[in-house]
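note to self — DONT lose this again. spent like an hour looking for the file last time. sequence + predicted structure for the chain T wanted, 105 res
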Amino acid sequence: MGMFSRVTSIFKSNVNTILEKMEDPNKILDQNIRNMESEYVKAKESVSKAKAEEIRLTRRVNELTTEALKWTKNAKLALTKGNEDLARKVFLLESYFYSYSFIIF
């Protein structure tokens, strides 16, 4: 082993010894607990945002479904009045609302 390698080894050994003496397991544990508490708060916020987004999307799907049902009634009304061309157009609108509500969810 060369002189440089020996000096390097001694230096690393001394630094590790100093670090081990400086480490306080209680302080390290306390810091880890603080870190976990902080992550817990962030996780709770993320869950709250996700729940709010789910509620918003559910409402939007319900709105689109209601709109599609309205267009279904209009199409049926157009068919009963003998206006087949209008009924086709209305059914296209209805399918648009249904497909859009499925895209959201």
